[in-house]
Write a structure and sequence with these properties.
- The protein has about 475 residues and is α/β, with parallel strands linked by helices.
- It has four domains: about 10-130, Conserved hypothetical protein from pyrococcus furiosus pfu- 392566-001, ParB domain (Alpha-Beta Complex), CATH 3.90.1530.10; about 180-230; about 240-315, no CATH class; about 320-470, no CATH class.
- Helix content is about 50%, strand content about 10%.
- It has helices at about 10-25, 25-30, 60-65, 90-100, 115-125, 130-145, 150-155, 160-170, 175-180, 190-195, 200-210, 215-245, 250-255, 280-285, 315-350, 360-375, 380-390, 410-420, 435-450, 460-465; strands at about 35-40, 45, 75, 85, 100-105, 260-270, 290-295, 300-310.
- It has a five-stranded mixed sheet. It has a three-stranded antiparallel sheet with strand order 6-8-7.
- A hairpin with a 6-residue loop joins β7 and β8.
- α5 (about 115-125) runs antiparallel to α6 (about 130-145).
- It is elongated.
- About 30% of the residues are buried.
């Protein structure tokens, strides 16, 4: 067996010693801490070691063969004369590979399981290669053993925000994380933080399981968070309207939406949180004695208060057809409007540096610049600011102006191209498909897909490829080249 040199402690060991000292309450115990060589056959890895993967041991094994162990292991007594390794799992494994039969150890007694986990975490957190998942599992162990976020912060030296982020990782399906990692799906801490936008943990797990690549995580999380917000707003709107005396429309009424028999009196957007004052006028509207209902139509991001047109008076065939076309165009506009909201959120994430960068940004810039020139779009700081902040161009003030000196040309072209889509529709007044408008939208969507934001494959995709049933709902379905 190679000769074991005198023990010495590096910075990591000294920090562990400090943690050991602070957590022991009896000075006499510290004085009696034993140092001795222990047979490797009597040493067992700690079952709660936060480091799940000890990595490649070849270099460490070669070093131990030449120089012996330069730093002792820290162990705690176990049953039947055995010991559990607290610090030094890689050294123990490499020592066995190097042929050592005994290794130098320091025996720490009187430590609770919580103290042991804290010490292992402190020692392992000094490693650059520790993963967010390993940290998360360690913090969760401490939480399960009675620690709080505050005490975890004090024991490990990490900030409360870091601990909370890691504990959110621990809430995820650990088996799914392991499965994706084995498949080469490596997530950064930024990706995990993006999942926190979604309140429902089950939905987070669904995103984790179905994302095509790590870049998709952010886009899917943004959309899921927006859906959660709309769902919560919808529940509040429904309750408020019910309290005002409005009932939900029966299926027969919802089915007549495109017949022209019903008109929308007021819309309550699901993208806004409405206050009580927004419902004050509803009772006054109901006072006229008409037949009122509230309804949420498919693909409409609003709850609508509706009433029968002309209070039962029959509409002419021409009026009914015109109202039906108007309703269909509105439905198409609602679908495009929702996609536009997701598009702005995606671009805001890109500008904030929360996504990866496509390989060929020059080609992206060329395509966007060509479209902007064809449409005669002129660069304006006001347009950039208005789009990113979601406000009207005429309301932009000097204080609102977004700093654009840090934006790349590709960023600016993308913002202006997306802003150029605002208010555009692929559905003409006679319900024909406007191919040129769809091409403008598809170009920007194709760019966003390269950043990890794929477009919706439902009715929105059909609107863009001209196959939507809306184009045949009461008007010519022949495609137009332009408006």
């Amino acid at each position: 067996m190679p000769r074991v040199p005198s023990y010495y402690y590096n910075g990591h060991q000294r920090q562990a010693d400090m943690c050991l000292s602070e957590q022991r309450t009896n000075a006499a115990e510290r004085k009696n801490m034993i140092q001795k060589e222990i047979d490797v056959k009597l040493l067992d890895p700690h079952p709660y070691n936060p480091r799940r993967n000890i990595g490649n041991l070849q270099e460490l094994t070669d070093s131990i063969k030449k120089k012996g162990i330069m730093q002792n292991l820290t162990v705690v007594p176990a049953e039947n004369g055995r010991y559990t390794v607290l610090i030094g799992h890689r050294r123990l494994a490499a020592s066995k590979l190097a042929g050592l039969t005994a290794v130098p150890c320091r025996i720490a007694e009187g430590l609770s399981m919580n103290d042991q986990i804290s010490i292992m975490l402190l020692e392992n957190m000094q490693r650059e290669d520790i993963t967010p998942v390993e940290q998360a599992q360690g913090f969760q162990m401490m939480l399960d053993l009675g620690d709080t976020v505050d005490t975890i912060c004090k024991k490990t030296g990490f900030s409360a925000s870091t601990v909370k982020h890691r504990l959110n990782i621990a809430k995820l399906d650990q088996k799914e994380i392991k499965r994706r990692e084995k498949a080469g799906f490596q997530l950064s801490i930024t990706d995990y933080i993006a999942l926190e936008k979604v309140r429902d943990v089950e939905k987070r797990n669904e995103i984790l399981a179905t994302a095509a690549n790590p870049t998709d995580i952010l886009g899917m999380s943004i959309r899921a968070a927006a859906d959660e917000k709309r769902q919560a707003n919808e529940e509040r709107i429904r309750r408020a309207l019910a309290q005002a005396g409005v009932k939900e429309a029966p299926a027969s009424v919802r089915g007549e939406h495109y017949s022209g028999k019903w008109e929308v009196v007021r819309e309550f957007s699901l993208d806004e949180r409405h206050e009580s004052a927004d419902y004050d006028g509803v009772r006054n509207i109901l006072a006229d004695g008409g037949e009122y209902w509230y309804v949420r139509f498919d693909h409409t991001q609003a709850v609508c208060l509706i009433r029968m047109s002309r209070k039962g008076k029959e509409l002419t065939e021409q009026e009914s057809a015109r109202n039906a076309r108007k309703a269909v165009r509105k439905k198409a506009a609602d679908i495009l409007r929702e996609a536009a909201l997701h598009r702005r959120e995606a671009i805001q994430a890109i500008i904030a540096g929360k996504t990866g960068c496509p390989e060929d940004t020059e080609e992206i810039s060329r395509k966007l610049r060509r479209q902007l020139l064809a449409d005669g779009v002129i660069f304006s700081y006001g347009l950039v600011t208005a789009y990113l902040n979601g406000i009207d161009f005429v309301k932009v003030t000097e204080e609102d102006r977004v700093r654009t000196d840090s934006l790349s040309d590709t960023d600016l072209y993308l913002i202006l191209a997306a802003e150029n889509l605002e208010g555009r529709t692929t559905c003409s007044a006679d319900l024909a498909f406007i191919r040129s408008e769809a091409a403008r939208i598809a170009l920007v969507d194709s760019v966003l897909a390269q950043y990890g934001f794929p477009p919706d494959n439902g009715e929105y995709a059909k609107l863009l490829d001209g196959t939507s049933r809306l184009y045949a709902s009461g008007g010519s379905s022949k495609a137009r080249g332009s408006n």
